[in-house]
Design brief:
Elements lengths: L7 H6 L3 E3 L6 E3 L36 E2 L3 H4 L6 E2 L4
Antiparallel strand pairs: 1-2, 3-4
């Protein structure tokens, strides 16, 4: 029988809580699905309101994008929008 790892550190790597700027609800950024918009960088879809951030006026401002930390980069983030901090 194979052992299942239950390390709390592994679980924490899979959670990146953020607050949706559109509806104000908290959600796990890493568990949310990517949107299908083509605005340069895809966004995550808030599970509460069902919207992504691509429609925000700030989404197109290059100054609001940064290189993601390694944990987020390995989860598919090429760039990180500051609203996801």
């Amino acid at each position: 029988m194979q052992a299942v790892e239950t390390s709390p550190f592994r679980a924490k790597e899979r959670v990146h809580p953020v607050r949706c700027p559109l509806c104000g609800e908290d959600f796990n950024l890493l568990a949310a699905p990517w949107c299908g918009c083509s605005h340069g960088h895809p966004s995550k879809i808030c599970p509460h309101c069902g919207d992504c951030l691509c429609s925000l006026p700030d989404y197109g401002r290059p100054a609001l994008w940064m290189d993601p930390p390694a944990a987020l980069r390995s989860s598919g983030f090429e760039k990180l929008f500051v609203y996801y901090l």
